[in-house]
UniProtKB/TrEMBL annotation:
SUPFAM superfamilies, A to Z: NAD(P)-binding Rossmann-fold domains
InterPro entries for the chain: NAD(P)-bd_dom_sf, SDR, SDR_fam
Pfam families: adh_short_C2 (PF13561)
Naturally occurring in which organism (per UniProt): Ramlibacter tataouinensis
Family under the similarity heading: Belongs to the short-chain dehydrogenases/reductases (SDR) family.
Name of this chain's protein: 3-oxoacyl-ACP reductase
Length: 265
């Protein structure tokens, strides 16, 4: 299927690895010009080289990268100094650490809300009016399946990402945006084969005293698909939400978790 977005410009955050990289790769393969952003310059440069060398990349599709912390005002200024008009924006920032809410002070909450709620809102605010004026825009926020089924040790993420979800639910249904072919959706990953998942599994292994592979195998068994997702298939879902064909999908929370969520709705 031709997604009809070749030649568009996409900003993909947190794209040096994992799910962000998967999204950038899928968009690039559709002929989208991608600007990838992440904090670590070395990893980001390696990711940009990998994207440029992708044999599935259409020749005209460009790859640019900006090493910046998108969760800061300065980082966003660095990105917008490169380009101000975007057709596609994929917001993504590393989730806050797990733990017991009794141990989190006000600063921990502010950091979580700043990165996982306010940063996406700032990026949306900076881009949606231009999208509406041009008659096309796609914003995809990478959040978490914990928004749908909260996880007790991820209270910081549960709270901050749920705040973003509530904000998007209202904004996406604004007739000014929806009627101008601007959509805003949230993409909720379950357990994907990423460094973050492995880090969580290492922590569980250390806490339980069980070998890492045993912990990971047990986690897989809780998923009906009996496996972890891949960044590539997550990216493909993101690319579809950015497509011309997805213009009638907005304000939605798209859960991709291998069937792990047990509810009907």
């Amino acid at each position: 299927m031709d997604l009809g977005i070749a030649g568009k410009w996409a900003l993909v955050c947190g794209a040096s690895k994992g799910l962000g990289f998967g999204c950038a790769e899928a968009l690039l393969r559709e002929g989208v010009n991608v600007v990838v952003v992440a904090r670590g310059a070395e990893a980001l440069e390696a990711a940009a080289r990998q994207l440029m060398a992708d044999p599935a990349r259409p020749a005209p599709a460009a790859v640019q990268h900006v090493a910046a912390d998108i969760t800061t005002a300065h980082g966003r200024e660095q990105v917008f100094a490169l380009r101000r008009d975007w057709d596609i924006v994929v917001t993504n920032a590393g989730g806050p650490p797990p733990g017991d809410f009794r141990d989190w002070d006000r600063e921990a909450w502010i950091r979580a809300v700043d990165a996982n709620m306010l940063t996406p809102i700032e990026l949306i605010k900076a881009t949606v009016d231009g999208m509406a004026a041009r008659g096309f825009g796609r914003i995809v926020n990478i959040t978490s399946s914990a928004v749908k089924a909260p996880i007790d040790i991820l209270g910081l993420s549960n709270g901050a990402r749920s705040g973003l979800t509530g904000f998007v639910a209202g904004l996406a249904r604004s007739s000014k945006l929806a009627s101008a072919n601007v959509t805003i959706n949230n993409l909720l990953p379950g357990a994907y084969d990423t460094d973050r998942l492995r880090g969580t599994m290492i922590g569980a292994s250390q806490k339980s005293g069980k070998p890492l592979e045993e912990v990971m195998a047990a986690r897989r068994q809780t998923i009906p698909a009996k496996r972890f997702g891949t960044p590539a298939e997550f990216g493909a879902t993101c690319a579809f939400l950015c497509s011309q064909q997805a213009g009638y999908i907005t304000g939605q929370n798209v859960l991709t978790d291998g069937g792990a969520y047990p509810g009907t709705y």
